[in-house]
């Protein structure tokens, strides 16, 4: 077991997180907050959905507008005509989070409702079976419009539907065929149908989803074998991309060599999931990866955004850190105490928890995002609930 210790920071002055019951209270509070908004709100990448977005026809203009909306301390969305969004990625992630607690009829009903919302957004036509973002995206390395599916959205949505039991056998088969036809290039899983760039977290998301479909859904044997073979090759590609220090860059090549917390979390979680389903022994690379993650992407219990850099608060990165601390405890890499400390250290900024002063005046819209904040934190809280003593 890798050891991590840090001073506990209470969620509230008189209510530290000690037990699963404490975490369940926070999870219910967060769900109620997001549900009251119908899981709609701002998104870090919604800057191109307003009228100005339709005028930004050049890559530089698109990226400038998107980043200005994302990073502005004041919320520019009302002035720019950007409306709140309910994304399938958020409801899919939240559906899976609620499904962990489905022994409770209340949480089961929540999982079913969110899963049905998500399943209704599964694409038909050319990209049948997959999911997309509801907004155009321009990154430093890629542009993809809202009409095109992507692997991250597809994975979160598919997992949420499978977890909640809202994806039928026919839809699962369509998903499996679409995954292989449009998001796999014969060597690894690609972020979008038109991308040839290897992105390790997306590749391993695709591998984990393909392995899950192959091993846990009633597919024709030939299709299941193709999925398992593709998943195994994809895992081997990303294992070969692990650096000697245990880290994974976002991707190989110039401009993609950074290491950050939430993408590293995705890599570790999905590598473990895919390898378990495929019967692959990845304990050694997982141990190296976890060691690097805990040493370089935390400052005590506070998550770092970039490896070795100063702490920088981001709701998705913080939520993923809680999720990964729960996973590390479940897998025996750390104790549950570290997961409680990470949650206590970050909880005060989330408006849905009502445990602190929030983020007034510091880009509070980012912390109110269903996809980037509430859904991943709900996923982290329900995962932590399952590993803490009652």
Global structural class: mainly alpha
Number of helices: 16
- Helix residue percentage: 40-55%
N-C termini distance:
23 Å
Biggest sheet overview: 2 strands, antiparallel
What shape does the CA trace take?
Answer: globular
Listing every helix as H and every strand as E from the N terminus to the C terminus, the arrangement reads HHHHHHEEHHHHHHEEHHHH
The low-confidence runs, each spanning 5 or more residues with pLDDT under 50, are 1-14
| Number of DSSP E strands | 4
Assess the beta-strand content as a share of residues. Answer: under 5%
Rg over alpha carbons = 20 Å
Can you give the mean pLDDT?
Answer: 92
Strand order of the largest sheet: 1-2
Quickly describe the structure.
With 390 residues, this protein is mostly helical. It has helices spanning 20-35, 51-55, 59-71, 77-80, 88-99, 105-119, 151-164, 169-182, 200-216, 221-240, 261-278, 283-296, 315-330, 336-346, 364-367, 370-387; strands at 137-138, 143-144, 298-299, 302-303. The longest helix is centred in the middle third of the chain and has 20 residues, at 221-240.
Describe the structure.
This protein has 390 residues and is mainly alpha-helical. It has a domain at 1-36 and 315-390. Helix content is 54%, strand content 2%. The protein is built from 16 helices and four strands. The protein has helices at residues 20-35, 51-55, 59-71, 77-80, 88-99, 105-119, 151-164, 169-182, 200-216, 221-240, 261-278, 283-296, 315-330, 336-346, 364-367, 370-387, and strands at 137-138, 143-144, 298-299, 302-303. A two-stranded antiparallel sheet has the order 1-2. Helix 7 (151-164) runs parallel beside helix 9 (200-216). The protein is globular. The protein starts with 19 loop residues before the first helix and ends with a helix.
